[in-house]
Structure formats: C-alpha cells, structure tokens
User: Which sequence fits this backbone?
C-alpha cells in the first residue's frame, strides 16, 4: 500500500466515522443527559438511545397542521435542519473530520443565528400565542448570548492569528508556539462556550426542557405546533446543535490538554468523543441540582458568560501583543 | 355542629350581613339557596364556634347583590345564578360559573319548582333536559336566556391598549391536571389580568346527593374531591351527626383526626414537591415524591386505602385499626426526621428562594376581603384556622399551633405548609399516644330528623371546608350544600398573579394548590 492509498483509506474512514457521529452522537448526547438525571433521582430512566427511537417513531407518525399556517412553517424546519447539517460539516466539533470548506468563525456564529431566525419564523407562523411568546423569549436570549459565543471564538482566533476555525482547531499552532498561557485560554473559552450553549439550547438554568408548563417554556413553546416528521426534524436539528456546541467545548478542553501533554491523533479522537459524553453527564448533574432562574435574572447569568469570553479575548489579545 | 336559623327580609339583608361581618372576627361561610325560593347566608362566628344561617324569602328571582359591599360574595352569586336562576342586581361581573354554553338555557338544576318566578303565561314546565334548546316552551324568565336569544353567553373581560395581547390556556393542559380555562391579558411578559373559567368537571354532585339514601351519601362525598377524601367524609359525618344531635365516641374522634392529619401531611408534601418541580428543582421534587409515599402508606395502614376512602362515616369510623397504630407512629416519626434536612436544603437554596420571594403576592387586606382560607390565607397574615374554632375530630380541645406568615408570596405559602406539615406529623404521634379506649362506631337511626339543618366545618388541607345539610318534612335530604376551600381561593390566585411574569404563573398556581373538581362539584 502506497502513501496515496493510505491517505485515501484514512480519509474514507474519517468520512465513515464522521457520518456515524452525526447520526448517533446527537441522540446519544440527549440520552446521556436524560439517563443522568433519571439516575440522580433514583429512577432507572429510558435507554440511552431512546431519543433516536423517538425520532424514528415520529417519522412514522402523521402530521397535524394548523389552518393558519403558511408554507413558512414547513420550509423553516427544513432550513433549520439543513443549516445544522452544514454546520456539523463545517464546524470543527470533532477532530476526525474529513475535508471541509472554509470554517470562518463569523460565518459559523451567524449560521447559528440563521437557524434561530428560521425557528422564530416557524414559531410565529404557527399562529399560536405560545409560539409568539416563545419566539420573543428566544430573541431575547439569542441577543444576550450571541456576544458570548462570538467573543469566545474570537479569542481563539486572535490567539492563533486566524479566523478560520480549521486552523484554530488544528492542534499544530499550539505545539509549535507552546505559550504557557495557552491551556488557560482554551479552558476559559471551553467553559464559556459550554455555558453559552446552555442558554443557546434553552437548557437549565435558563429554561427547563423537561417541563410540561407551556407558560414557562422557551424553545419548547416555539415547537409546540410541530408534529410527525416535522417534529422529528426539529428534534434532530436541536440535538445536532447541542452536540456541535458541546463538541466545540470538548475540543477546547482537549486542546488545553494537548497543550500540556503530547497525544496521538487517536487519543485526541477518543478524548473528543469522551469529552462530549462527560459534558453531557455534567449538564445532567447540573440540571438535577440547579433551580431554574427567574426570567429577570437570566441576563445576569448571561453577563457572567459574556465577561468570561471577554476575559479570554483580552488575554488572547494581550499574549498576541507580547508575541509581537 | 348545630346551626341557628334566623330569618331576615330581603331589604335588610345587605346591611345586616355587612354589619355582622364587620363586627369582631365573623366570617362569611357560604351563600346559597335551599330550593330557589330563598337565599341562605351562613355567617360563622369563630370566637364562639357558632354559626348562624340567615334565610331570606324571595318574591322574585331578582335580589340585591352583596358583592359590591362584600367582595367574597361575588363567586357564590355566580353559582346561584347557574343553579337556581336567581339574578343578583348590581353584580360587578356576573358570568356563568359552572354551567357552560353546552347546557340548555332552561336548565336550573337545583331549583325545586321550575315554574317559580316564571313571568307570563309560560308553559315552561320544568324544562330541565340537557337536549332541549331555546324555543322549546315559553321559558323566558325561568332560564338563563339572554336577550339576543343566544344562550349562556360567556364573555371574558377584554383588556385594551397598545401591545396588550391574550394568551388562552386550557381547558386541556399539557400535564395530567384538571381542566380550567385561563385567559391572560399580558403586556410583554407581565400579566395584567387573569380570568379563570372553571366548571369543566361539574358533575352535579350536590343534586345527586339529595337523590340518594343518606347512608350512601358518604361514598359520593368522598369521591367528589378525592384528594380531600378524609376531610370531605369528616365534614359530611359531622353535618349528619349534627342533624341527629349526637356526639361520637372519643376514640372515633381521635381516629378521624388521625386520618385528617395524615391527609394534610400527604398533600402538603405533594404541594411542596410540586413547587420544587415547577422551579426545576428536580432533586427536591423527586425526594418529595418518595416521601409522599411514606405518608400514603401511613394512610393505608390506618384505613386500608391510600386515599383514605371508606373509613370515616357518620357515627364514627368504619373499623378500628388500633393494631396498626404503633407502626403508623413509627412511620410518622421517621417521616418527620427525613423531611427536616430536605426542607432545610430546599429553603436554603438561594436561587429557589429568589424564585419564590415576592412572587404572587396577595396583601392581607385583599386576603381578608376575599376570604382567602387555608395555607394561602395564613400566608397573608390571616389567623384563621378552623381547627382553632370549630368542633371536628379532637379540635378545638387539642390546640395546634397556627402557622402564620405575613409576606403573602409564594415563599410564605411554602413556609406555612412546611410548618403545618411538621406540626401535623408531631400531632399524629401525640394522638396515637393519647388514644382513648372504647367504641369507635355509634349506631345511627335509619331516618333523618325532619325539617332540620346540619353543618360540618373542617379544616381540610386547603382550608375551611363547609358541608351543610337540610332535610324536608319527610325527613329526606332536600339540599346538600358544599363549600370547598377552593371556592374562596380561586379568586385569590387571579389577584396574586397580577403584575407578575407569565412564566411565574405555574408557580403561583401551584403555591395555592387549588382543586378544580372540588370547586366544580
């Protein structure tokens, strides 16, 4: 076997691994959170792959559409799902990624925003009062948390001297520069992405995803009118968004570790996946022990996250200056 | 307990009752009618543990509404309109309460003589079938037909203004709870007005109770609001016993109190767990779910039924569970010990307190005006606990501490429940220690006394529960009136949520812990 063949085999195996991850990691992520919460309440809980079974079940079900809906509702779901697939392909949330196009961090942040806009359009189009106020809450949260995710990624961009996330998450610049502050920045950004993803995904302590109370919901209120395959797509897109964000955060932690210990690509890959699982477990623990914040206190929580990202950006800018 | 019956003319009614209620600490028990030809207003005197039933004979279906001077009356008068077709003049917001659009406009379920007060040469002879509609018979005047011919219109209050929008919720809800329609008028996230529409589970319990032999009434009474089965059975038993003018053996009194307190403990645990669940505090909510199981198994040991059905009956209790009492005592002790750290954990969580503090506030003045009862009333500085004043079970001989808070918010209601939960469990242990010997069931005569009235007042876990029985000249039960604590407190919820966030409504709702079926009956 020559070099070219080896390379082809390697990229083929990457494609296969990537495809499997896109299909199985998102529902597994949800499953782990649910299982953790169940175990902490002394319940056995549903099987780990129950979210996947639920999505498959929804695919077989019929659909009920409100008579006030226009085509926007259906289109929005498809757009959100497609955007998430593109994001899964572009964003370096897994380290065993096949070839991907330019992964500009601004593009990625605003593709997330695009998905949000279409979720909102769908919610407003459904014509129910819950959809409307769910949308208004989502906009508020989105506005607040956008700087956190953006600043976190910008901090990494400044530090690595590129806004292309393929280069930022390439493991190489760190090992070559070996700045002592490096693991710190990675950790800081990892935590800030994780916390902002809790807001982004409407999870505790901002929104209780398990609640049945329509009046308190954020994300769930927007998708109340969806059913059948439409709902399956929404659920899967949401789970995918979760694993992309958790994956980004896990990647940051793996990079922090890689800045200290040298590790092989295989270890990195395993750590990456294990990191997502660990993050899911910790989110489950957090959700069991924390209390949902009062809606007026949510900006306070988001402010902590934003300032954490800001700190990371400042440190990165500072270290950039010293390098120069 | 015995109830004194006095007559009062229609013209003097408003003024007399207003003055009575302003004097010392008298309370309005209930307003209703026996057969549609009179009004009865039950005025309670807690200090003396006595009650007076004021009867006002009616010449027409119109009467002066009490609601403008006694706010609490507004709800009773709405029910009176539905059940007897009696129309209050000057009622601030007269709407149908229990009977919705689907019912025939001529249906006046509790009115005995359907032709009474019918104007004109009507042949509207008691049209009370569910299927008959509008034009069937000249029933104008006897039913609730509005002028445009459409029947039983219901118009929720509309709040107008820039940016005000309405959120309709229910009657079918997302969780497994009872049905009610909530209509919020909001400005952004802030609730301006909440209109509550109940009646979806109206089953005609009060009418059915008059149609059945009195010995079977207790089964229906228990089933009317199953989460207060013991309280309902106790109130019913006291009302029937007061007709016969008998007192039950002391041992039965103790056993009945045990059942009542176990029910209170189980429901307070349930309500506190629900509060924790609504703020997303899963650790507490699932622990409370487990602990409620212990309270329910105490109930099962005492009565053979986890919801305490078929235990308390007129004359005493159905059987004597003395052999199981030591086990119940052990469980009560264990439960009290288990609860303490959980409650400390719950109340010491800063975010949890933050969620409950100053949310859903109902001021002491409004609580007094609308006669808010039970834990919700005591959280708003109302020192009223029927256990202090009215004879039921071992009360008021044995005094329990009254848990009073002044905040009037969700946190205060939670604190009152925690305090009562602790005192209930402590009382259970004490009662078991002090259990007297003797019989636990007294045999009652077969037929009820004629032309009598009986009253039972019980402090259920939601607050003051009133059962009132009237018998006719044949010794048959002619009217059975029930006032569930929720009748008072639903209005309290509507007041409490004003100017709160929409997202805090479920929490406020849970903190009142109201019964839908108890209200609708």
Assistant:
């Amino acid at each position: 076997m020559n070099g070219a063949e080896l390379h082809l085999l390697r990229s083929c195996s990457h494609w296969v691994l990537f495809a499997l991850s896109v299909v199985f990691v998102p529902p597994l992520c949800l499953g782990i959170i649910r299982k953790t919460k169940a175990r902490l309440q002394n319940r056995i809980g549903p099987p780990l792959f129950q979210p996947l079974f639920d999505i498959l079940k929804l695919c077989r079900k019929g659909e009920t559409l409100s008579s006030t809906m226009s085509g926007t509702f259906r289109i929005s779901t498809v757009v959100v799902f497609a955007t998430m697939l593109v994001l899964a392909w572009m964003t370096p949330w897994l380290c065993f990624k096949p070839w991907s196009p330019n992964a500009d961090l601004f593009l990625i942040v605003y593709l997330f925003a695009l998905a949000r806009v279409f979720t909102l359009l769908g919610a407003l189009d459904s014509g129910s009062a819950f959809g409307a106020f769910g949308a208004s809450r989502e906009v508020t949260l989105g506005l607040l948390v956008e700087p956190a995710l953006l600043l976190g990624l910008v901090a990494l961009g400044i530090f690595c001297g590129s806004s292309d996330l393929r280069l930022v998450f390439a493991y190489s610049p760190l090992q070559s520069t070996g700045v002592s502050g490096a693991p710190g920045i990675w950790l800081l950004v990892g935590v800030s992405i994780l916390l902002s993803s809790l807001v982004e995904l409407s999870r505790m302590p901002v929104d209780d995803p398990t609640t049945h109370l329509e009046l308190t919901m954020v994300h769930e209120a927007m998708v109340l009118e969806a059913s059948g395959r439409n709902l399956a797509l929404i659920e899967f897109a949401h789970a995918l968004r979760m694993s992309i964000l958790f994956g980004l955060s896990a990647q940051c932690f793996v990079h922090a570790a890689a800045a200290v210990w040298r590790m092989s690509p295989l270890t990195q890959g395993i750590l990456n996946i294990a990191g997502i699982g660990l993050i899911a477990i910790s989110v489950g623990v957090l959700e069991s022990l924390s209390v949902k914040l009062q809606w007026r206190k949510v900006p306070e929580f988001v402010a902590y996250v934003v300032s954490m990202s800001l700190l990371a950006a400042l440190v990165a800018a500072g270290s950039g200056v010293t390098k120069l | 307990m015995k109830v004194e019956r006095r007559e009062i003319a229609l013209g003097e009614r408003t003024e007399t009752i207003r003055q009575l209620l302003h004097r010392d600490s008298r309370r309005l028990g209930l307003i209703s009618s026996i057969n549609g030809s009179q009004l009865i207003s039950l005025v309670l005197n807690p200090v003396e543990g006595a009650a007076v039933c004021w009867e006002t004979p009616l010449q027409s279906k119109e009467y002066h509404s009490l609601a403008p001077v006694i706010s609490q009356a507004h709800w009773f008068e709405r029910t009176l309109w539905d059940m007897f077709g009696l129309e209050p003049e000057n009622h601030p917001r007269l709407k149908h309460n229990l009977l919705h659009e689907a019912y025939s406009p001529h249906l006046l379920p509790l009115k005995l003589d359907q032709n009474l007060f019918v104007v004109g040469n009507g042949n509207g002879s008691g049209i009370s079938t569910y299927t008959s509609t509008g034009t069937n018979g000249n029933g104008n005047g006897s039913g609730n037909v509005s002028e445009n011919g459409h029947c039983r219109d219901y118009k929720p209050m509309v709040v107008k203004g820039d940016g005000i929008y309405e959120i309709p919720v229910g009657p079918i809800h997302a969780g497994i709870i009872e049905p009610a329609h909530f209509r919020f008028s909001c400005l952004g996230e802030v609730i301006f007005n909440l209109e509550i529409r109940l009646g979806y589970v109206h089953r005609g319990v009060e009418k059915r109770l008059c149609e059945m032999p009195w010995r079977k009434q207790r089964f229906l009474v228990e089933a009317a609001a199953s989460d207060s089965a013991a309280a309902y059975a106790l109130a019913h038993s006291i009302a029937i016993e007061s007709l016969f003018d008998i007192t039950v053996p002391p041992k039965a009194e103790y056993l009945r109190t045990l059942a009542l307190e176990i029910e209170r403990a189980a429901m307070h645990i349930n309500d506190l767990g629900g509060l924790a669940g609504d703020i997303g505090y899963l650790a507490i909510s699932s622990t409370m779910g487990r602990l409620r199981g212990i309270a329910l198994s105490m109930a099962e040991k005492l009565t053979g039924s986890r919801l305490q059905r078929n235990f308390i009956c007129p004359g005493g209790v159905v059987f004597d569970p003395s052999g199981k009492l030591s086990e119940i005592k052990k469980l009560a002790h264990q439960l009290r010990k288990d609860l303490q750290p959980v409650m400390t954990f719950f109340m010491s969580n800063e975010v949890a307190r933050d969620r409950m503090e100053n949310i859903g506030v109902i001021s002491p003045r409004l609580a007094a005006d609308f006669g808010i009862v039970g834990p919700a009333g005591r959280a708003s500085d109302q020192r009223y606990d029927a256990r202090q004043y009215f004879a039921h079970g071992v009360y008021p001989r044995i005094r329990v501490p009254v848990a009073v808070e002044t905040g009037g918010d969700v946190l205060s209601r939670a604190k009152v429940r925690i305090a009562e939960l602790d005192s209930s469990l402590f009382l259970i242990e004490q009662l078991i220690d002090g259990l007297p010997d003797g019989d636990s069931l007294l045999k009652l005569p077969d037929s009820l006394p004629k032309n009598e009235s009986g009253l039972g007042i019980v402090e259920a876990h939601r607050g003051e529960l009133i059962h009132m029985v009237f018998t006719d000249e044949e010794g048959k039960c002619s009217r059975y009136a029930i006032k569930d604590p929720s009748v008072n407190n639903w209005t309290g919820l509507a007041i409490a949520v004003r100017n709160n966030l929409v997202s805090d409504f479920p929490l406020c709702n849970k903190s009142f812990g109201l019964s839908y079926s108890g209200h609708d009956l």
